[in-house]
Amino acid sequence: MLVYLILVFPYESKHENIKTCAGEVIIIGICISGLFLVNDEEAQIEEKRMNVGWWIVGLSAFILVWHTIQLLLETFRSVLYFLARAIQKLKACVLSNKQKL
């Protein structure tokens, strides 16, 4: 997906490309961390398995927080844009009413 996104079909916005690529890199990191547990032997130290598990939990939490922050920022921008448009329409309505009087 990362190669496809970068080479074949990038977003118009550079910000969107960076945001999506960063998320994909973190997901790849989660998968690589999981690979350490695939051929897990019972003789391995339990602490090593716990550390790999915490890396997976940490990366998952980071990507969740990352996307939540991005969603909040985009929502905040949309609300500001909506309010600005509403204020412009209200001013235009008030001006047109003054001209009619």
Write the layout of secondary structure elements.
Layout: H1 2-8, H2 14-35, H3 46-100
Could you characterize the architecture of this molecule?
The model has no long low-confidence stretch (mean pLDDT about 85). The protein contains three helices and no strands. Helix content is about 85%, strand content about 0%. It has one domain. The protein is mostly helical and about 100 residues long. It has helices at about 1-10, 15-35, 45-100.
Unreliable spans? none
Largest sheet: none
Number of helices: 3
Mean pLDDT: 83
**Assembly type of the shown chains?**
single chain
Give me the Rg, rounded: 24 Å
The proportion of residues forming helix, as a percent range, comes to over 70%
Task: Provide tags for this entry.
101 residues; mainly alpha; 83% helix; elongated
Give the structure's gist in a few sentences:
With 101 residues, the protein is mainly alpha-helical. Helix content is 83%, strand content 0%.
